[in-house]
Amino acid sequence: MPIKSKAQRRKFAELLLKGKISAEAYERWNREAGGTELPEHVQPKRGLKRKKKPVRKSPSKAAKRKPRR
């Protein structure tokens, strides 16, 4: 499994320091990535969908008129 992004490289380095993966595994994955410039993340994060504001109906014409005196 080659490392595909800078974020993955940091995560695997952290796991290496904690002792959860071996140094050989980290080196193998890092070597398979090669010397290419990696993106920060594999896929950009999705933005939150904005809720549409409800369309307000305008008041009726009768309500708009002011009473005449």
What attributes does this structure have?
69 residues, mainly alpha, rod-shaped
* Separation of the first and last Cα atoms: 84 Å
What is the number of strand segments? 0
- Unreliable segments of 5+ consecutive residues: none
Strand content bin: under 5%
Overall shape: it is rod-shaped
User: What summary fits the major beta sheet?
Assistant: none
By DSSP (H or I, 4+ residues per run), the number of helices equals: 3
Characterize the quaternary organization of these chains. Answer: single chain
Structural class: mainly alpha
What do you see in this structure?
With 69 residues, the chain is an all-alpha fold. The protein has a domain at 1-34. Helices cover 41% and strands 0% of the residues. It is built from three helices and no strands.
Provide a brief overview of the structure.
By secondary structure, the chain is an all-alpha fold.
Protein topology:
Elements: H1 6-18, H2 23-33, H3 61-64
